[in-house]
Amino acid sequence: MGPWVGLSTAAAAVLATGGLVGLLGAEAIYGAETAEFADIATAQDVVTLMVLAPLLVVLGRQAAQGSLRARLVWLGCLAFAVYNAVIYSFSIQFGPLFLVWVIGLGLSLVALIGGLCTLELGPVKDRFEAADVSGAAWFLMAVATFFGLLWLAEIVPDLWQGAPSTSAGAWNVPTNPVHVLDLAFFLPAVFVTGGLLLRRQPLGYATAPGQLTWLALTCVPIVLRRLLRQLLPPRVLSRVS
């Protein structure tokens, strides 16, 4: 666990630094983005600085001390870090924080892979085998199905009409990175985890807490952005400092 927790802590520091710089210099960092994308990035910076980075440090330390629960949730936080670092690295205009996001992506991705590969499934199975996991299983599968259909409800009509991606146009990017990541990786993983839980497979027990954590964390920037939009005038959110 030691090396992976060390990489996770380093990723937390790098990503928190990027979030702080993004908040203090929003105009310089996100000035070339559309107002919508800049606002989303700013809300995400707040979450990275105030929620994600502290969780990676605290949960990583607890996991290193032998807490299985902390380790499983920590993996979900790392998945969320990878998810957002990919979006930042590929979709935000090339600028001062590019290398910060790329380094954060590399550190969090390697920590996630290492944490998953060294996880022993036996203790996980013993911990959760007697628990009723059917509710969590159906929830994961329903969420994955719902968002998959929601994204396809935009993608398929745009393709049919030969039009650019509607949501990508709002961000001024070629394709919506959320659609790519969700449909190619994360939503299938969430659905498979739900299926494994229903079959009471050890891998389902091992990945479900992380998947639930990732889903919860994805909601936080959305809620924060809506809240700040109620409190701040238009376009101010992307210039919060």
Protein described:
With 241 residues, the protein is mainly alpha-helical. The chain has one domain (2-239). It is 81% helix and 0% strand. The protein is built from ten helices and no strands. Helix 6 packs across helix 10 (202-231). The longest helix is centred in the N-terminal third of the chain and has 30 residues, at 35-64. The relative contact order is 0.16.
Key attributes of the depicted protein:
single chain, 241 residues, mainly alpha, 81% helix, 0% strand, globular, disordered C terminus
Total beta strand runs: 0
Shape: globular
N/C terminus separation: 37 Å
* Low-pLDDT regions: 233-241
Based on helices, strands and strand pairing, what is the structural class?
A: mainly alpha
- Please summarize the sheet with the most strands: none
Number of helices, where a helix is a run of at least 4 consecutive DSSP H or I residues: 10
Number of domains: 1
Mean pLDDT: 91
Oligomer state of the chains in this structure? single chain
Strand content: under 5%
The run of helices and strands is HHHHHHHHHH
| Helix residue percentage | over 70%
User: What integer value in Å does the Rg equal?
Assistant: 18 Å
Give a brief description.
The protein is mostly helical. The protein has 10 helices and no strands.
Topology readout:
Layout (H helix, E strand, L loop, with lengths): L1 H23 L1 H5 L4 H30 L3 H24 L6 H20 L3 H8 L5 H28 L4 H6 L5 H22 L3 H30 L10
